[in-house]
Each structure stands twice: as C-alpha cells, then as structure tokens.
C-alpha cells in the first residue's frame, strides 16, 4: 500500500510520503477507481482534506484500500457504500440522492438516461423495498438490511465493479 501511495506522488515528494497528500487527480488514475461511476464520491468520502480538494494522506489511502479489500466485512462495505451514495451527506438517502445514484449507474450519455416517469417509478420501487419506517428516506440500518439480503453485495464487496 505504501509503495502504491508513493508512486502516485511527484518524484520530489516520495521521500516524505508519510506526510504528503496525493492529489485527487492522481488517486483517480488507480485501476480500482478509473472506471468506477462513483469515483468522485469515493474520493470525497475517504479524504480528510480540510480544503475540500479531496486529496488523500496515506491514512486516507489505507482506509480506502481496506474497504475495497476482499477481507473487509459486509458491514464495513455497506457503511461506506451508504456514505458514498449519500451525496448531500445528511445521513439519509432521499429522492435526490437516489436519482444521483441511478444517474451515476446509467452513465453520462443521454441515450441511457431514464425519463422522468421511469426515474420516479424506480425511486418509488426502491423506497417501497427499502424504506422500512416509511419516512420517505433510507437510513443506514435500512440500507444495511437491504444489502444483507443481496448475495452479490456480499460476494463482490459492494464497491467493486
């Protein structure tokens, strides 16, 4: 992990990798993130940068790699998947978050975008399946309950594609 982190730094900063921060643009070159539709959210969630640039220190990088590892528990993976899907960072997945998740999954091309009616129906179906307390949002425990019933989430780790 340290070697991979160091290689993302400019050559002149590699000797002090423990105190350096890797730019988000470099983090996004990692094969694990390059094609991930949630790459920007992943950087946001794992970065501890105070200035909002989503850069990562070595500890941030380790945290991210540990969640992506096959040895991470389903609870850990689902916790971070929830945070990644919670675009407004309010602790719930509401209709706007769910729409952004769907748009990330369908890609930037307009030809694959859902119509407003299709999007509304999909979000309604997601909420009917997941919103146990019927408050119009999905909280972490509801999310974890749903993914615990998904063998693919457990098998493939949830965050990996």
UniProtKB/TrEMBL annotation:
The superkingdom of the source organism is Eukaryota
- Which terms are listed as keywords in the entry? Calcium, Magnesium, Metal-binding, Repeat
Q: Which SMART domains match?
A: EFh
Q: Which InterPro entries does the annotation name?
A: CIBP, EF-hand-dom_pair, EF_Hand_1_Ca_BS, EF_hand_dom
**Would the keyword Nucleus turn up in this protein's UniProt record?**
no
- One Gene Ontology MF term: magnesium ion binding
* Segments forming domain EF-hand: 73-108, 118-153
Q: What is the protein's given name? A: CIB1 protein
